[in-house]
């Protein structure tokens, strides 16, 4: 392990398609200004649903990236992923030669594949019979289509994986891409997460679990991580992709470097299908594993991009886990949840939040936790309330925790050569 750890991995490209806007600059500006991407659901008539709000991507123009026939035959979560990857690759300036192509991987995450397409063609099957099912049905719904289409778009012939670990999928994808570069399987990887399941069955299903906020009259104030009055998460859609590169390869081509990824942890709660243990044990073990992977002490972390879903259980358990791992330093950390503005992108969340973590280190500015108005005694850390904060950030952690008790954590450092 000591030999492979000599390879260093950096972030050289970032691409975002989010409810705050298509394009990295649009999203980052929205975060810094505390703008919300949450509003009434427009994808379908949600009037019969308990939860009638979501964070939809409003400005996406698929024709910018796809021919009309492709738009028809590619599910929205695939479109978002490919577009985000294209933005990241353009940002990076990396061009794949024939020789380089075999050394570039694609590793993506999503939680649910395409529920909207399944929902649509189930209705077609019942109403019109099996002969009316499109031959593109299966290629539209399977979870590895983002990684497949991204690899075809850029000719990336290296390791190709798709992870489906619920809300930790995007973070696991980034962590596994980091490992593949460390281990020498590839020299670069396009990685992140995507999701697009704002449809009746998904909203109804999560609402049936009492997981979603029903603050329908105040959509922009509904996602309130760590606040005493939080009542559930807001479903979101979009994609976040980053380009990871081995440092020397990036240096040789004069790449812009946003941050260095230095640690990765993953664990299981082994506890419950949807609820974390009260003490956040699995999350704590995951954070400790990431710190060991990075060879860092807890007091070297300055900022945590929290999972922070705005659900009563997650936010108190995550806070407990942070205090377990960081001790007294927990009260010196800045902790914020960008889901207060973007909503919760499920399997795509870790991808956009990895991008946010890299941008935070690059700009030395922390996105706020908006709608933090009424402190909860169980959540007593510094959550960067309501206003972005300029400060010196040496290293940052990004947390993701998913149903089934699966946890993922990555650590990045400010790049200084």
From TrEMBL:
<keyword id="KW-0808">Transferase</keyword>
<dbReference type="InterPro" id="IPR016039">
    <property type="entry name" value="Thiolase-like"/>
</dbReference>
<dbReference type="Pfam" id="PF00109">
    <property type="entry name" value="ketoacyl-synt"/>
</dbReference>
<comment type="pathway">
    <text>Lipid metabolism; fatty acid biosynthesis.</text>
</comment>
<keyword id="KW-0275">Fatty acid biosynthesis</keyword>
<dbReference type="GO" id="GO:0005829">
    <property type="term" value="C:cytosol"/>
</dbReference>
<dbReference type="InterPro" id="IPR020841">
    <property type="entry name" value="PKS_Beta-ketoAc_synthase_dom"/>
</dbReference>
<feature type="domain" description="Ketosynthase family 3 (KS3)">
    <location>
        <begin position="6"/>
        <end position="414"/>
    </location>
</feature>
<keyword id="KW-0443">Lipid metabolism</keyword>
<dbReference type="InterPro" id="IPR014030">
    <property type="entry name" value="Ketoacyl_synth_N"/>
</dbReference>
<comment type="similarity">
    <text>Belongs to the thiolase-like superfamily. Beta-ketoacyl-ACP synthases family.</text>
</comment>
<dbReference type="InterPro" id="IPR017568">
    <property type="entry name" value="3-oxoacyl-ACP_synth-2"/>
</dbReference>
<feature type="active site" description="For beta-ketoacyl synthase activity">
    <location>
        <position position="167"/>
    </location>
</feature>
<dbReference type="InterPro" id="IPR018201">
    <property type="entry name" value="Ketoacyl_synth_AS"/>
</dbReference>
<keyword id="KW-0012">Acyltransferase</keyword>
<dbReference type="InterPro" id="IPR000794">
    <property type="entry name" value="Beta-ketoacyl_synthase"/>
</dbReference>
<dbReference type="Pfam" id="PF02801">
    <property type="entry name" value="Ketoacyl-synt_C"/>
</dbReference>
<dbReference type="InterPro" id="IPR014031">
    <property type="entry name" value="Ketoacyl_synth_C"/>
</dbReference>
<protein>
    <recommendedName>
        <fullName>3-oxoacyl-[acyl-carrier-protein] synthase 2</fullName>
        <ecNumber>2.3.1.179</ecNumber>
    </recommendedName>
</protein>
<comment type="function">
    <text>Involved in the type II fatty acid elongation cycle. Catalyzes the elongation of a wide range of acyl-ACP by the addition of two carbons from malonyl-ACP to an acyl acceptor. Can efficiently catalyze the conversion of palmitoleoyl-ACP (cis-hexadec-9-enoyl-ACP) to cis-vaccenoyl-ACP (cis-octadec-11-enoyl-ACP), an essential step in the thermal regulation of fatty acid composition.</text>
</comment>
<keyword id="KW-0444">Lipid biosynthesis</keyword>
<dbReference type="GO" id="GO:0006633">
    <property type="term" value="P:fatty acid biosynthetic process"/>
</dbReference>
<dbReference type="GO" id="GO:0004315">
    <property type="term" value="F:3-oxoacyl-[acyl-carrier-protein] synthase activity"/>
</dbReference>
<keyword id="KW-0276">Fatty acid metabolism</keyword>
């Amino acid at each position: 392990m000591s030999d492979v750890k000599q390879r260093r991995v950096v972030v050289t490209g970032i691409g975002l398609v989010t409810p705050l806007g298509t394009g990295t600059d649009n999203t980052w500006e929205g975060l810094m200004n505390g703008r919300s991407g949450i509003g009434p659901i427009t994808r379908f008539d949600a009037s019969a649903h308990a939860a009638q709000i979501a964070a939809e991507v409003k400005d996406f123009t698929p024709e910018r990236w796809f021919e009309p026939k492709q738009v028809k035959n590619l599910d929205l979560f695939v479109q978002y992923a490919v577009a985000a990857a294209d933005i990241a690759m353009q940002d990076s300036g990396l061009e794949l030669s024939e020789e380089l192509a075999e050394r570039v991987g694609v590793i993506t995450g999503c939680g649910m594949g395409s529920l909207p397409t399944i929902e649509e063609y189930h209705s077609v099957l019942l109403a019109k019979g099996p002969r009316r099912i499109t031959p593109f049905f299966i290629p539209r719904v399977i979870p590895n289509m983002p990684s497949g289409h991204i690899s075809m778009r850029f000719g990336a012939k290296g390791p190709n994986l798709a992870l489906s670990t619920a809300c930790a999928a995007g973070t696991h994808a980034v962590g596994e891409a980091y490992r593949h570069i460390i281990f020498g399987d590839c020299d670069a990887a396009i990685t992140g997460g995507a999701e697009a399941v704002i449809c009746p069955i998904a909203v109804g299903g999560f609402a049936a679990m009492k997981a979603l906020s029903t603050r329908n009259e105040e959509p922009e104030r509904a996602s309130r991580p760590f606040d005493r009055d939080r009542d559930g998460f807001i479903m979101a859609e979009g994609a976040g992709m980053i380009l990871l590169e081995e440092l020397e390869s990036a240096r040789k081509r004069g790449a812009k470097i946003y941050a260095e990824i230095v640690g990765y942890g993953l664990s299981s709660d082994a506890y419950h299908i949807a609820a974390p243990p009260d003490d956040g044990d699995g999350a704590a073990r995951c954070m400790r594993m990431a710190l060991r992977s990075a060879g860092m002490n807890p007091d070297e972390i300055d900022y945590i991009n929290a999972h922070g879903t705005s659900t009563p259980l997650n936010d108190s358990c995550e806070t407990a886990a942070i205090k377990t791992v960081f001790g007294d330093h927990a009260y010196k950390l800045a902790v914020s949840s960008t889901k207060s503005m973007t909503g919760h992108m499920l399997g795509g969340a870790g991808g956009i939040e990895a991008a946010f973590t890299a941008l935070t280190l690059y700009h030395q500015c922390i996105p706020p936790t908006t709608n933090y108005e009424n402190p909860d005694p169980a959540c007593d850390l510094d959550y960067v309330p309501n206003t972005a904060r300029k400060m010196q950030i040496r290293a940052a952690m990004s947390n993701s925790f998913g149903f089934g008790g699966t946890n993922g954590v990555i650590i990045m450092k400010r790049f200084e050569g």
